[in-house]
Automatic annotation (TrEMBL):
Pfam families listed in its UniProt record: PRISE
Domain PRISE-like Rossmann-fold, chain residue ranges per copy: 64-351
Membrane-spanning residues: none
InterPro entries: NAD(P)-bd_dom_sf, PRISE-like_Rossmann-fold
Lineage: Bacteria, Pseudomonadati, Bacteroidota, Chitinophagia, Chitinophagales
Name under which the protein is recorded: SDR family oxidoreductase
Species name: Chitinophaga fulva
Length: 351
């Protein structure tokens, strides 16, 4: 009988979806998967529909949360300004945690996701390689505020927290805006259909900057490891594939995989040019008998503009997690991306 019960919040997202599958596959967890809408994939996890924005709804779900021992918090809500975003995302936690403290006596740890914004990546250049001990950037920053809330709330309690910082998570999901694998795959498919080369849409500097990414498999393993490692309590860990690369090294391999030629970078806005290709995408779906997703459901082009125009090196130091015992960050980022593309093909998302 499993003694640990995981509550995976944001189970439809790129992180939560794979984490749910991973925890189930280990056979060591009772898994509760929560999202605001029905789960996109079939699963043996117990589904708990939950809108963390609604404090009354969270309180009403208390009976379903009594056995929770570990919380994997992947929920997120978008707002227009940094102040609104911070307030709204802290509220997601503050609506939940007091309920768990009341109804789940065996609660041990709350794990939550941070990322490059913790180092000021959204503001521009940051020190590389980024270390977990680096000083904070200008506030408000909802990562900091969530962390501070959990630090304060857990003080003197029987539960602890752990923050995991991946960078550009690569994996399969639909309907998640920040999904780079979907974006590249759809972009390559559109270029191939139009008979044009797949040019890197960012600047030459961005094409040659050093970057890193995090595969969903490695991330899921790190979350489980951090949940069960007593030395990980109240700690922060950078998690990536363990390698760094330049898009100039990877782009030709991506083009080769999709069978589309690659030419020199040519800077343009994906957000400006690509949404107008929704009719072409609909034709591709029909022509190749693909799953009937619209362009808007698969891709958020503005996310690509942000990623592909980072002109300075942007990567993390991951040695802290290794020192604490997590030894899985030996991935190959090229392979991680290609595996994500293969899954998109298997699911009939791309031809």
């Amino acid at each position: 009988m499993n003694t640990n019960t995981a509550l995976v919040l944001g189970a439809n997202g790129i992180i939560g979806r794979h984490l749910t599958e991973h925890l189930i596959a280990t056979g060591k967890w009772n898994v509760l998967a929560s999202a605001r809408s029905a789960l996109h994939d079939k699963t043996t996890a117990t589904f708990i529909p939950l809108d963390l924005n609604d404090a009354q709804a969270v309180a009403a779900a208390g009976d379903q949360l009594k056995t929770v021992t570990h919380v994997f918090f992947n929920a997120y809500t978008e707002r227009l300004t940094p102040y609104e975003q911070s307030e709204a995302n802290v509220k997601l936690l503050s609506n939940l945690v007091p309920v768990l403290e009341k109804v789940a006596p065996a609660l041990k740890r709350i794990l939550f996701i941070q990322g490059g914004k913790a180092y000021g990546a959204h503001l521009g250049r940051y020190k590389t390689p980024a270390l977990e001990t680096d000083l904070r950037s200008i506030t408000p920053n909802f990562y900091y505020d969530q962390e501070d809330y959990l630090r304060k709330q857990s003080a003197g309690k029987n539960w602890s927290w752990t923050a995991i910082r991946p960078d550009i998570v690569i994996g399969f999901t639909v309907g998640t805006p920040m999904n780079l694998a979907n974006l590249i795959a759809v972009y390559a498919t559109l270029c191939k259909e139009e008979g044009i080369p797949m040019r890197f849409p960012g600047s030459y500097k961005a094409y040659n900057a050093l970057v890193n990414i995090t595969g969903d498999s490695i991330l899921s393993k790190s979350l489980e490891w951090a949940a069960l490692n007593e030395h990980a309590e109240n700690e922060i860990f950078n998690i990536t594939n363990g390698d760094i690369f330049r898009w100039s090294q990877l782009w030709p391999q991506i083009g080769e995989y999709f069978g589309v030629p690659v030419a020199e970078p040519q800077t343009f806005s994906l957000q400006e040019y690509m949404p107008g290709k929704k009719d072409l995408w609909a034709e591709i779906v029909k022509k190749y008998n693909l799953s009937a997703y619209t362009l808007e459901q698969l891709v958020q082009w503005g996310f690509g503009d942000a990623i592909f125009n980072v002109e300075d090196d942007a990567f993390f130091d991951v040695n802290k997690a290794r020192r604490y015992g997590f030894q899985e960050m030996n991935g190959n980022s090229t392979q991680v991306l290609l595996d994500a593309f293969r899954l998109l093909k298997d699911r009939r998302i791309i031809p």
